[in-house]
Every structure is written in structure tokens, then in C-alpha cells.
């Protein structure tokens, strides 16, 4: 899928710009459709960030990416939930390609940009030659039409926030937002806490019931009740959270979550993730 030829005449080089800035430049041009072909992991993240932060109408963004790269990037709840928001809005569609050997390209009906990275420098090699752009747009549109959809199972962050505020409390929603804002990633592999751990810590800070937070998490699509229960047990065993029984009229008592560590109890919300991560590692 490599149409970008070294001998091609380039009109301009967008050197010393981040991929984020190059993407914003293209979006600012107001294309109806923007094809993102064979993006790197960092380019996928930059696209999601740029589109999420953009204040205005977005083009229809069609991303054609390597399946393994997409899966790895979407392990980060922050990126995946923002991508799910864009998908929910109809601004983004994800499809996969088995051919990841070509250039990383941005293609619209008016311009083709090859993203070239050299060390910490990024160049956007551009062409607006009508014949070349028409050929590229047509070719990659055909690839797009034949590609397979990528299934993103992460729920949209807007839905997560709204339902957390409705089903747990507005304070829990504020705390959840603050914790996420303090993290660069939320992968749960030692590089940021995962979404279940974050949810349980926020629930414990607000002394919510385990039943309520796990039912919310399963209903909104974050994880199953069983996953919430296993993670609660892990955090409890490591001394991060504790529980107390709350009697109910019928059935077994429910468990109220509480922060069990003095450092966590005394931490500001935007420090909660850092304190918890230091304990888990």
C-alpha cells in the first residue's frame, strides 16, 4: 500500500511539528473525510488526542491500521475510552489491514501527507498535486472498503462519567475525572492503573458499596462483576482498601469500601493514583 514515492515533488515540509500539530493542521482544513493509513502506535494516540481536544466540527476520520498495533494502543483505557467517544459521535471508524509495510499517511480529497519520523523530529511530506492526490484517495478508499472492522469494547468516556455520577455520586464522578487527569496512561501493567482499580479506589474514597460499583462497572462495560471482585480482593490483600459489612433486609450483607491506608486517606484526589501505584509496585 505504498504510494508515496521518494521522487515525488513535495510542496512543503512540515518539519519540527508534532504529529498532533500536523493532524490539527489537516483537520483545520475542513475535509469531509480523512483517511489515516498505517499509523504508528504513537500516531494513533496523537490522532485520538488531537480529535478529542479539537473545538469544532471533525471530519469523518477513517483509520486503517495494523490490528496488533490497534489492540496494543487500546489497552490504555484513557486512549480507548476517548476513541470510543469519537466512534459514538460518528467521527471515527477503525478498520484493520494486514499490510503494515507502507508509509504512515494522511489522505484527504485535497492533500496527501506522509508522516516521517527521524529521532525526535517529525516531517509531514505533503503533496496537493491533483492527479496524485486523486489516485491516492481512490486507492486507499478501495483498501478501506475491503478492510475488516476493528471491534473496540471499551465504553465511551462520556457515558462512563455520566453514569458514575448518576449511579454512585457526583463526588465519585469528580474524583474519577481527577484521577484520570493525573495519569498519562491507564493500562494496569505497571504503567498507570487500570480502569477497574481506579474505579474501586474512587468508590473506596467515597465509601460506596462494592455491589453498586461492580454493578455499575459491568452495566457500563468496563468489566464484569467477577473482575471487580477479584481486583477488590487484590487491593484488600495489599492493604489499599478495606470493607465493612452493611446489613440489608434480605440476603447477605453488602460490603462498603473504604481506603485502608493512611497515605491514601490523606492524599489529594489528584495524588491518589500515584500513591496507589507506588504501593502496588
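^ Assign residues to that structure.
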Amino acid at each position: 500500500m505504498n504510494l508515496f514515492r521518494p521522487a515525488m515533488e513535495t510542496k512543503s515540509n512540515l518539519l519540527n511539528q508534532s504529529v498532533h500539530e500536523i493532524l490539527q493542521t489537516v483537520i483545520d482544513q475542513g475535509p469531509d473525510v480523512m483517511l489515516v493509513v498505517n499509523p504508528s502506535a504513537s500516531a494513533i494516540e496523537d490522532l485520538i488526542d488531537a480529535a478529542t481536544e479539537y473545538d469544532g466540527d471533525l471530519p469523518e476520520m477513517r483509520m486503517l491500521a495494523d490490528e496488533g498495533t490497534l489492540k496494543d494502543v487500546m489497552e490504555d483505557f484513557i486512549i480507548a475510552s476517548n476513541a470510543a467517544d469519537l466512534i459514538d459521535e460518528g467521527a471515527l471508524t477503525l478498520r484493520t489491514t494486514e499490510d503494515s509495510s507502507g508509509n504512515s499517511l494522511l489522505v484527504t480529497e485535497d492533500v496527501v501527507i506522509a508522516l516521517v519520523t527521524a529521532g525526535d523530529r517529525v516531517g509531514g511530506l505533503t503533496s496537493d498535486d491533483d492527479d496524485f492526490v486523486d489516485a491516492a484517495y481512490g486507492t486507499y478508499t478501495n483498501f478501506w472498503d475491503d478492510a475488516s472492522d476493528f471491534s473496540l469494547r471499551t465504553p465511551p468516556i462520556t457515558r462512563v462519567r455520566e453514569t458514575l455520577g448518576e449511579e454512585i455520586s457526583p463526588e465519585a464522578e469528580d474524583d474519577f475525572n481527577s484521577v484520570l487527569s493525573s495519569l498519562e496512561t491507564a493500562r494496569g501493567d505497571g504503567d498507570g492503573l487500570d480502569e477497574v482499580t481506579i474505579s474501586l479506589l474512587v468508590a473506596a474514597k467515597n465509601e460506596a458499596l462494592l455491589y453498586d460499583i461492580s454493578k455499575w462497572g459491568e452495566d457500563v462495560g468496563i468489566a464484569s462483576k467477577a473482575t471487580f471482585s477479584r481486583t477488590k480482593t487484590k487491593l484488600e490483600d495489599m492493604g489499599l482498601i478495606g470493607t465493612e459489612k452493611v446489613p440489608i433486609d434480605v440476603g447477605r450483607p453488602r460490603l462498603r469500601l473504604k481506603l485502608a491506608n493512611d497515605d491514601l486517606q490523606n492524599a489529594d484526589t489528584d495524588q491518589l493514583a500515584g500513591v496507589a501505584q507506588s504501593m502496588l509496585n
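Confidence is low (pLDDT under 50) at residues 1-10.
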